[in-house]
Amino acid sequence: MKPVRLAILGLGTVGGGILKLLQENAAEIKRRTGREIQITHVGTRRPRPDLNLDQKIKQSADLLNIVAQDDVDVVIEVMGGIHPAYEVLLEAIKHGKHIITANKALLAEHGNELFKAAEDHSVQIVYEAAVAGGIPIIKVIREGLAANKIDWLAGIINGTGNFILTEMRDKGRAFDDVLKEAQELGYAEADPTFDVEGIDAAHKLTLLASNAFGIPLQFSKVYTEGISKITAQDVKYAEELGYRIKHLGIARRTANGIELRVHPTLIPQEELLANVNGVKNAILVQANAVGPTLYYGAGAGAGPTASAIVADVVDLVRDISYTEDGAGTVPQLAFEALTDLPILNREEMTTGYYLRVNAEDQTGVLADITTILSRAGISIDAIMQQTRLKDSIPIVILTDPIQESIMDEALAKIQALPAIHGETIRIRLESLDQ
Amino acid sequence: MKPVRLAILGLGTVGGGILKLLQENAAEIKRRTGREIQITHVGTRRPRPDLNLDQKIKQSADLLNIVAQDDVDVVIEVMGGIHPAYEVLLEAIKHGKHIITANKALLAEHGNELFKAAEDHSVQIVYEAAVAGGIPIIKVIREGLAANKIDWLAGIINGTGNFILTEMRDKGRAFDDVLKEAQELGYAEADPTFDVEGIDAAHKLTLLASNAFGIPLQFSKVYTEGISKITAQDVKYAEELGYRIKHLGIARRTANGIELRVHPTLIPQEELLANVNGVKNAILVQANAVGPTLYYGAGAGAGPTASAIVADVVDLVRDISYTEDGAGTVPQLAFEALTDLPILNREEMTTGYYLRVNAEDQTGVLADITTILSRAGISIDAIMQQTRLKDSIPIVILTDPIQESIMDEALAKIQALPAIHGETIRIRLESLDQ
User: Fold this and answer.
1) How are beta strands B98-101 and B74-77 bridged, if at all?
2) DSSP per-residue codes, A104-153
3) For labelling, which of A69, A79, A183, B5 has a CA lying 20 to 30 Å from the CA of A226?
């Protein structure tokens, strides 16, 4: 059989990692596929003589030209960013090239158009590397759990955020302090917004949810909250109550629609997910036949990302060898036909809560708060009065799950009590046990 | 497209679970495959009127006749046992039927012949349910990690054994006591040998290793040691040193060959694998590009096993729809061609050790022991003299990795010291960090 020919667009850390991996594991990969894999083109603005690329590999900055070449079967896009990646991939699809991409932002925001174009041109877009790096979570959900109706999934899908929260917990450090270290270590970008404000996680959650429920990609409907307001104080109180704060992406099927949300979340200390530390990722999936399963590993980095990209290469090589036109056997978003289930607004979602109220030391304030919660039908699971700080006493309350709109109203009333100082902190809480 | 037609052989817990799952999730599965799935035959010695099977499903005890029928595309074998499963599946293969089986014993011991027959007749044998129940670990290793050279894997792959060890640790209970409870709870068989002596785990490890390294199935070469000799005392000492004892199946690639071993193992408390409790399973895989990844979930039970079986059904339905004769795209044991790497004997393997020596309270014995170890080139990582028991003082020693033959010799010398009482306990230790 003829070799399968690849064009790699982007020669940064990940692009370099792919070249290295294809070379290093060439023998093992050949044993798996029984077929030669050849890199014919590399698209890069700056040539990289340091990589000592094979002389036969053509380097060029003209990406639209590369994707039109006859000696390309598969285009690997690891440039990142939405433009020009979107235009280049559309062009590649029109030329009948299969696509492998790690570009979560592009797929979450423009995937519906790209998948449609791929279908029209009978090519595949595969994207294992776009979610949770080297963990084969897309394959697990699309194929491994295909017998199940998936109830929900909850994932630590941003390594930077998890590194920051882990350091805050282990060493009692402040957010800003750890963020600075993360930037120095290269875990966080100079502009850390995408990571710490949850946008990156929301991109990944969008992809996970479509594969879990068979719904179109709907990034704009993900409720997204970052970790920049989490304080060392709340991390400590959570720990005392038996919980850890993790930044989770959660997709849940409810009777009224789908919840898509990214936010800091208290989860029980003894959960495996609570023990996923540092830059590592993990996804917990609750499905109706198998029950809970968890998938853990490196969520970023050249090696792990290349691992996912090249696994997609292997899949495509197998598909090109054994299916008509390499069309493959698995639907792009796990389902033959997508369903338009409603996505809930934040106000319609249901979660448990950690509340921290700063109260004056005044008789009756505890009674006032619990009365407000009780009248709203909010059950209190735990309540803890903390040591007095300068001018107030922090009262920490854990509640059972309640609809957010009800909590909004109750909190407005609590906030209006004269004995309350400053803003009441609310962090969501999930027991992960259903 | 015509429906894909299934025959289910065996109507026990798992068989019943498959029927229930195919019915309960029919709509979701149809959305994934775009194709009808029909059960046409059920093979069972005793008819099950309580299951209210569709009248169109034929029930029969004549399995060889069922697998010859024209209205069967796929045979699902969930009878268990080696005979007559082996003969029935060979017959099914000769009639061109694809096979799905959960039968780890059959595959580990006779898989090489069965896979050969399947190749000759252009059918697939798939077996996700044979290892770690509902965790899609075969798919992960065959496909998800296909870009990697796998260095080693270590798994908790027998739920009964893990339940027993978890109870022993949590409650300080004795092995026999917990085993009895496990039998009452239905976690352990009346004859628990397969589970507690590691045979079941060795069957599963055989399948994992072939998929990880591309070697033929070699069950007879797995070094297998059970948990029946683990005492509450050693569990406690391990805990004090920061370790937990887990019954692991380990497959490791070394410069000299492959290690295949099942045995109780001390692993660091903070490892996720050490925190997998009760009947749950988990497999940690170390691969050269992605690094460590871990897969966790239910390893047995009707729902999880049916989840894996029906995921295989979905894969086969997709393959039958899109590849020639349904031959599929992935090699049966992950590699297009298997390699005959040498499998190491126990004496050639290398592990760390937990040793418990029972010494008379006599000056010099500690010096004698450490001298023997030091002369053998065995590094001591920790040493702890415990509180005196009736007639001796337990001395616990943790060592760095060393070849087993060297440890054998050193232990023989220690055992020959006049101040040593009874047998020295040796339990292997893995740091899981490379």
Assistant:
1) parallel
2) HHHHHHHHHHHHHHHHHTT--EE-GGGSSTTS-HHHIIIIITTTSPEEEE
3) A79
- Assess whether the previous peptide bond of A3 is cis (omega < 30° from 0): no
Same domain, A404 and A321: no
B85, two tokens: 């499963």
- Phi, then psi, of A287 in degrees rounded to 5: -130, 155
State whether B307 and B173 are in the same domain. no
**Inter-chain residue contact B140 with A143, CB threshold 8 Å:** no
Do B405 and B259 belong together in one domain? no
**Contact (CB, 8 A) for B422 and B414:** no
Q: What is the structure's pLDDT at B55?
A: 87
Report yes or no: A379 and A350 within 8 Å, Cβ to Cβ: no
User: ipTM of this predicted complex?
Assistant: 0.97
Q: β-strands B291-298, B280-287: how paired?
A: antiparallel
Partner residue opposite B329 with nearest CB, options A21, A319, A331:
A319
Is B189 inside any structural domain?
A: yes
B362 falls in which pLDDT band (50, 70, 90)? confident
Within this chain, do residues A187 and A227 fall inside the same structural domain, yes or no?
yes
Confidence at residue A52, expressed as pLDDT on a 0 to 100 scale? 81
Domain count, chain A: 3
* Contact across the interface for B336 and A295, Cβ inside 8 Å: no
Tokens of A70: 């006859």
CB atoms within 10 A of CB B122: 13
Residues A166 and A253 in one domain: yes
Which tens digit of pLDDT belongs to each residue from B291-344?
A: 999 999 999 999 999 999 999 999 999 999 999 889 899 999 999 999 999 999
Q: What is the largest CA-CA distance in chain A?
A: 83
Q: Picking from A136-145, B49-58, B174-183, B345-354, which range would have the lowest pLDDT averaged per residue?
A: B49-58
Is B58 designated active site? Answer: no
Q: Which helix (H) or strand (E) holds A202?
A: helix A199-213
User: What angle, 0 to 180 degrees and rounded to 10, lies between the N-to-C axes of helices A159-171 and A175-185?
Assistant: 130
Q: Which of A97, A139, A204, A246 is catalytic?
A: A204
Is B163 part of any domain? yes
Based on the fold, state whether residues B108 and B170 are members of the same structural domain: no
Whether the Cβ atoms of residue B309 and residue B128 lie closer than 8 Å to each other: yes
Helix (H), strand (E), coil (C) string for B302-321: HHHHHHHHHHHHHHHHHHHH
Find out whether B32 and B318 touch, Cβ atoms under 8 Å: no
Q: Which of B135, B291, B335 sits opposite A303 (nearest CB)?
A: B291
Answer whether residue A333 is part of any domain: no
- pLDDT of A162: 97
